[in-house]
Amino acid sequence: MRILTILFPVTRLVGHRTHGIAGGMISGMTKKIGVSLRQELYDWAAQEVEEGRAESVSALIAEGLELLESRAQLEAVVKDLRTEIGDLDEPIKTSLGAALGAADEAYRQHEAGNAGHAGHAA
Length: 122
Fold this sequence. Notes:
By secondary structure, this protein is an alpha+beta fold. It has helices at about 40-50, 55-85, 90-120, and strands at about 1-10, 30-35. The chain is about 60% helix and about 15% strand.
């Protein structure tokens, strides 16, 4: 098991609804923490860096946490919608599906840009 020290940017603003360890901190601050990874996971992350698909293992882990945070925020919005208006009707489901599709496409473009960046770095 490897232990990494990582600086994570904190993107929460004071006074906003907060979740997790970043709650209540000022935007732009970083928090230094240690993370333990299975050797196989560390090896995969190091290979991503070596092949230019990630800036660093730390950045890769931070990106993964940001994706999980975004997913949790989306789940909270859907839960709030269901609480306020009940089950979603078809037009709302369609709009939500389109928004999720756009988010997926933006992520795919981001990944394609990273892959293209790796080709230029080699």
